[in-house]
Design a protein that fits this description.
This protein is of the alpha+beta class. It is built from five helices and five strands.
Length: 146
């Protein structure tokens, strides 16, 4: 059975942990392993942090949207902002690339997402915003007991 959650919140850094915990609680019914749960919470954290820091620089009025969908043994997560967008998504996906070196950003957000998820799609348009779609099939605890 397919189940969907939608969440919209202010683009302030305090809400990153809220998003992370909420998505984690939502996918709990899939009985993910601790590693799977940690990986999903980490990618949500990375995507939301990117939306806040890069999508809405100096704009406390921006909004971040998350949609999560579970279907059988897979989870799809979309994180979207309507911020400044990116000119070059391919460049942003390169390990260690950061547009905010003054904030001591590591430039590993998209790399982490790509390593922890089965599929990552990033669409961005300058002055329109960025949408990050993430998908992962879970092995879960049940599969480990067979």
């Amino acid at each position: 059975m397919k189940n969907v959650m939608k969440l919209c919140f202010s683009a302030v850094s305090e809400n990153e942990s809220f998003a992370r915990v909420t998505v984690g609680a939502f996918i709990a019914k899939l009985d993910p392993t601790m590693d799977e749960l940690t990986e999903i919470k980490t990618v949500v954290s990375e995507a939301v942090t990117n939306a806040i820091i890069h999508g809405y620089p100096n704009d406390e009025h921006g909004m971040v949207r998350i949609e999560a969908e579970i279907d059988e043994d897979s989870v799809k997560i979309t994180v979207q902002d309507e911020g400044v967008g990116m000119n070059n998504v391919n460049e942003a996906r390169q390990p260690l690339f950061t547009s905010k070196p003054e904030l001591e950003r590591s430039g590993m957000g998209f790399t982490i997402m790509e390593n922890f998820m089965d599929d990552v799609e990033i669409r961005s348009e300058p002055m329109v915003g960025t949408t990050v779609r993430l998908q992962k099939r879970l092995a879960g605890q049940k599969a480990m007991c067979n």
